[in-house]
Specification:
heterodimer, A: alpha/beta, four-stranded mixed sheet, 20% strand, B: mainly beta, six-stranded mixed sheet, four-stranded antiparallel sheet
């Protein structure tokens, strides 16, 4: 048995900093909104998958205990920046296979403040100075400059675009536009990246209810939800290795996931109307244009320069404002993208609406490596 | 003062100057670092530990200004990708912090030096690459 999977409803807690609230409060708000939005009785939910990284033991259980939606399997999923994508994949497969008819997928996070210590690193590597994430982002951005001819201005342009988009998103943390000059003149974090080219870790939650497709008009179908890790050999891969090969033309986890998703859905990059993708920093967005096969290799800089990915462009990318505007609550960020794209495909995105959006792609990638690509389609 | 490598099996301290220890697969013949039992590329279970070249070419570099959690050295410091003749690229701290001296293609050389003194009074040895500057 293999069934089409539909989104019954979505919920979100704004992304930002919320001093008076715990992570469970954030999760409860997002799940409550998804239940109300889908008009699903919480007692009908048969299984729940919760994506989170920093929330500790039984985090998803604490949310569902508060909502009295218990007695069902509740699973907490960690896959770094793609945790929500991993949770979604499990939920989608459970519906597709016929295991369940009503599944809740949610993600939530309350990121620590300041420079975040990751248990990924062994103590010796931290002592040696091998752990700073912004330095790896910077090295990848430099590689893009070297191999795809990306300029500092193009890196800044990504930040300008996403912050401009974020002004219209009530769920975003930063709703202020920046000029190219302001982005370039902000403090250098690690050359070539400046402060306004990097997203901020923060807090938030998002939730999605899944059910089998009913064949009714304007349903949002999950056409593919794919997770992939890395192949070895690329020293700058998201698995953050200490070595790679000189001949490192190795397929990235994002490209592995994208190719599998396009194949599973019977769709290609040419079918896409709107995209939400991982913009941990400006370079990551440009790299994703190439790895998701949106543009040809070496053309990502040209794509941003020509305005292709602006809200009114050929293929709008990060109309929500992306992580640069919203901030990045790890467990929630992937599902935050799904919430935005659900609204886009339903024509409910208000001033952010991309006209006639029918097919959408969501992408997250991070340490592990974990890359998630989700394709949504409106019937 | 006695000295130890920052991680067992990372450094060959019997050689002068000291070298990094990597792994070499006896089947696909590719190198990796740090050394591990199974080849990361071809999954063979027959890897041998070998000293890596002390000289390399800088491929990419940046400068870290804020000390990451747990770091025991000084800021700023360089961090980059160094290409070794074995066909290996490794992530390594760099002694140089002036970006103009960290151009791609620059010759760099391994430096093994004490990073800190541990609770038992031993010098803990770390590594970095330094540009070979012609003065």
């Amino acid at each position: 048995m293999s069934r089409a999977v539909a989104i019954a409803g979505v919920g979100i807690h704004p992304f930002g900093r919320f001093d008076g609230k715990g992570v469970v409060d954030l999760g409860v708000e997002a799940v409550r909104m998804a239940l109300e939005n889908s008009r699903v009785d919480r007692r009908r939910v048969q299984a729940a998958y919760c994506g989170t990284v920093y929330s500790g033991v039984a985090a998803g259980h604490r949310v569902l205990t508060a909502l009295a939606a218990t007695g069902i399997p509740i699973m907490n999923i960690e896959a770094g920046c793609a945790s929500g994508g991993a949770a979604l994949q499990l939920g989608v497969e459970a519906i597709r296979s016929g295991q369940y008819d009503c599944v809740l997928v949610f993600g939530m996070e309350k990121m620590p403040r300041g420079i975040i210590r990751s248990s990924f690193w062994e103590p010796w590597a931290e002592q040696m100075g091998l752990s700073p994430a912004p330095a790896y982002f910077a090295l990848r951005a430099q590689r893009l400059m070297r191999e795809s001819g990306v300029t500092r201005e193009q890196l800044a342009q990504v930040s300008v675009k996403n912050h401009r988009n974020g002004v219209d998103n009530p769920y975003a943390m930063f709703r202020k536009p920046f000029t190219l000059e302001q982005v370039l003149a902000s403090p250098v974090v690690c050359d070539p990246l400046t402060l306004y080219m990097l997203c901020s870790p923060n807090e938030g939650a998002a939730a999605v209810l899944l059910r089998p497709a009913a064949g009714v008009p304007r349903e949002v179908i999950v056409a593919a939800a794919i997770l992939r890790s890395h192949l070895p050999g690329n020293v700058l891969g998201e698995h953050t290795p200490l070595c790679g090969l000189t001949d490192d033309d190795v397929t990235s986890p994002t490209e592995l996931a994208a190719r599998a998703a396009y194949e599973a859905a019977g769709l290609g990059p040419e079918d896409l109307d709107v995209v939400e993708l991982q913009d941990t920093e400006s370079g990551r967005e440009l790299q994703s244009y190439e790895e998701l096969l949106l543009c040809r290799r070496g053309e990502c800089g040209k794509w941003i320069a020509n305005g292709h990915t602006e809200r009114g462009g050929e293929l709008p990318v990060n109309v929500s404002g992306g992580l640069l505007s919203k901030g990045e609550p790890l467990g929630a960020s992937a599902l935050g993208q799904i919430v935005e794209l659900y609204w886009q495909l339903r024509g409910e995105a208000g001033s952010r609406q991309v006209p006639q959006a029918r097919v959408a792609l969501a992408h997250t990638v991070g340490r592990g490596a974990n890359a998630s690509v989700v394709l949504l389609r409106q019937t | 003062m006695p000295s130890i490598p920052i991680r067992p099996g990372l450094l060959d301290l019997d050689r002068t100057p000291a070298r990094l220890l990597g792994g070499r697969c006896t089947e696909c013949r590719r190198h990796h670092f740090p050394a591990q039992a199974d080849c990361p590329y071809c999954a063979s279970t027959s890897c041998e530990t070998v000293p890596l070249s002390e000289r390399g070419i800088l491929y990419l570099a940046t400068v870290v200004h804020n000390a990451p959690p747990g770091y025991c050295g000084q800021v700023p410091y360089g961090l980059g990708v160094v290409e070794l003749p074995e066909g290996l690229r490794i992530i390594s701290p760099l002694t140089e912090v002036r970006l103009e001296r960290l151009q791609a293609g620059a010759s760099v050389r391994l430096r093994v030096a004490p990073l800190f003194v541990d609770e038992q009074g031993r010098e803990v040895l770390g590594y970095a690459f330094a540009p070979e500057v012609e003065e």
